[in-house]
Amino acid sequence: SDLDTLDVVVLVALLVGTVAYFTKGTYWAVQRDPYGDSLAAANGIAKSAKSRNIIQKMEESDKNCVVFYGSQTGTAEDYASRLAKEGHSRFGLKTMVADLEDYDYDNLDEFPEDKLAIFVLATYGEGEPTDNAVEFYEFVSSDEPSFSSGQSADERPLRQLNYVAFGLGNNTYEHYNSMVRNVDKYLTKLGAQRIGKAGEGDDGAGTMEEDFLAWKEPMWAAVAEKFGLEEREAVYEPVFEITERDDLDPESDEVYLGEPNKNHLEGSQKGPFNQNNPFIAPIVESYELFTAKDRNCLHMEIQISGSNLTYTTGDHIAVWPTNAGKEVDRFLHMLGLSEKRHKVIAVKGLDPTAKVPFPSPTTYDAVVRYHMEICAPVSRQLVSTVAQFAPTEEIKTEATKLGGDKDYFYSKVTDRNLNLAQLLEILSNGEPWRKIPFSLMIEGIVKIQPRYYSISSSSLVQKDKIAITAVVESISKPGAPHILKGVTTNYLLALKQKQHGDPDPDPHGLNYAITGPRNKYDGIHVPVHVRHSSFKLPSDPSKPVIMVGPGTGVAPFRAFVQERAAQAKAGQKVGKTILFFGCRRRNEDFLYAKEWEQYKKDLGDNFIMHTAFSRETPKKVYVQDLMKDCQEELSRLLQEEKAYFYVCGDASNMARAVNDQVVQGIAAFRNVSREKAEEIVKMMRASNQYQEDVW
Ligand code: FAD
To answer: Where are the domains of the chain?
Structure first.
């Protein structure tokens, strides 16, 4: 066997745990609906009381089209909302959006023939469904899905179901768009009728948005034909009602000023802390690992004691960001809301199926600062929608042109890294677009997403403190009017500077609300939660490990080496610990340079570090080149000693090149064909001997 007994036991335990969690549908439920519970509570709806019967739900709310989404980072959810809106405004469909997780599918065979189901499905990781689509996927992919009517799969039980499908994937992964491809296959097998082509968006090629836009036009034409729908002049209809509450003061106890949910509002943060409920954690230490010309890298230590949050080496921590004040100001100004920013507003869905993506009552300022991804790239579709609200006819013409012309949009907007407010500002020369309804902004801008970091400390060494290693994103591009500042990493940098009492805590004038809503983050706190991962050291420390982590990809390997060094110091037998690291220059961005020397002392000859400094040699050297130089030894360790192999960092290029190098090494060492070597690597992945933590 490829694994020793102990590992098998651990793997089985992990698997059982995973399945148990999956069936609850909550395991590593990421970012899906950070406000779900609080919202249900705020709206007085007990979560359990909601019906899981989609057919009944559609009937009750008088809908004839449901757009289901399987979403991990919010993009699929955003596309689903856009399809729902468009179906309604252009074709008069009575649409609703539905989280796949919220419904059961055993009555899908009763889905009425005159209604339409749209599936927007992201593929996650190694061809897996997103967390919220796990149960749905299990249902449709099972050999004999059990329908409550008792129909069997042979009877083509879904013959009444008319559906449309779009997938979100990344062609740099092997299982490209496998979710939409498989669901389409299974639905067809069960007799369902697809209308139009199943669309596929490719994040790897950076064409997701354009793929989506190109797919939906012929799809709508096919839907219109099938259901005999007439296209009408699309009139914007708001999804949310915004009521200004003059009776409430922003300091009133019930007003959310950025608190993520009711517990936080009431002042007592209560666990369990998870993707719906962050822990406001103290930052106990923070410093810069390096500061180069226009790049810096942060190390932060975050205290989780007393929170009941736990982690094990290899897990991820999610950081909930706050938008930079500079961008919040720009956004509010461009919408003509500067003077009203602290006015209390109540936000309500005009339709019972519309979910407000943040708690209310709140203020414009709080919504924009804490809940909207206002700095993200602006979509062409949103630009074509806002065009009708331009301050002048001339600006409207230009915005309409941008919305309608893919290449023009690319050169004027995408290529210049503009966010929505920056674009509006350029188009109108700073004059506010007062006619844009705030509801459109809630609909059109995705809700802010927590960002993940591979924990760079060992839970064995410091179980109550989580370390983060993060490069501060700052991108200046020739021709772009603004420097693109990463939302979360610049917020973390500002926190670090504040902690050090930096006289100029905000060198970029980003102006963060460091102390948080009602000063609840004062004393340097940051909202976080932990996501457990399957990126784990072998349970037996004597097993050899090979780790490849250039740049910040080294983060989890600092944790791995820290752990093995501690085990060695404690007298345990620790196996070969090989690390491949790469950066630009030894004296510039060599992360944890001093620490590796200490680990070397603790682990002795068993710790081998290979380094590549790409800017120091005439020819650029990368980690995969270093691996090539010792491919025989690596292949031998993998085969004869069943070494564990780990890759962390850049998903698109590096991880692929490393995979390729391993394949080459194995083919040469075992004297087998490339195909065979690829097969072997696949099996190593399947048995967890080869693990990736890439982004
Ligand atoms: P964002 O604001 O999210 O921007 C990120 C990028 O998006 C920009 O660089 C740019 O390319 C693009 N972008 C944003 N806005 C625009 C715009 N208006 N126009 C055009 N393009 C735009 N990072 C680490 O440093 N260390 C880690 O250990 C680490 N571990 C990770 C583990 C996992 C599992 C994952 C998924 C990611 C990990 N990351 C890690 C990446 C991290 O989560 C963040 O993506 C990263 O820190 C950037 O976040 P940000 O909010 O600062 O930048």
So the answer is: 24-227, 236-533, 545-694
Rounded to the nearest angstrom, the distance between the alpha carbon of 84 and the centre of ligand 1 is: 29
Atom of ligand 1 nearest to the CA of 422: 18
What's the 87 CA to ligand 1 centre distance in angstroms? 32
| CATH-assigned architecture of domain 236-533 | Up-down Bundle (1.20)
CATH 3.40.50.720 corresponds to the domain 24-227 = no
* Closest approach atom of ligand 1 to CA 451: 43
Distance between CA atoms of residues 691 and 685, nearest Å: 6
Marked catalytic residue, from 81, 454, 459, 635? 454
Question: Any catalytic annotation for residue 693?
Answer: yes
Burial of 464 (0-12, 13-18, 19+ CB in 10 A): middle
User: Is the fold of 24-227 the same as that of 545-694?
Assistant: yes
Predicted local confidence at residue 581, as pLDDT: 98
319 Cα to the center of ligand 1, angstroms = 11
The fold of the 545-694 domain, in CATH, is Rossmann fold (3.40.50)
**Cβ count within 10 A of residue 553:** 27
Of 56, 156, 195, 187, the residue nearest 112 (C-alpha):
56
Q: Can you tell me which residue has the tokens 């006819």? A: 393
The per-residue pLDDT for range 595-653, each reduced to its tens digit, is 999 999 999 999 999 999 999 888 889 999 999 999 999 999 999 999 999 999 988 78
Ligand 1 binding pocket includes 488 (Cβ within 6 Å):
yes
Q: Please give the model's pTM, rounded to 2 decimal places.
A: 0.88
Q: Does 7 score more than 80 pLDDT?
A: no
* CA dihedral sign, ordered 388, 394, 397, 399: negative
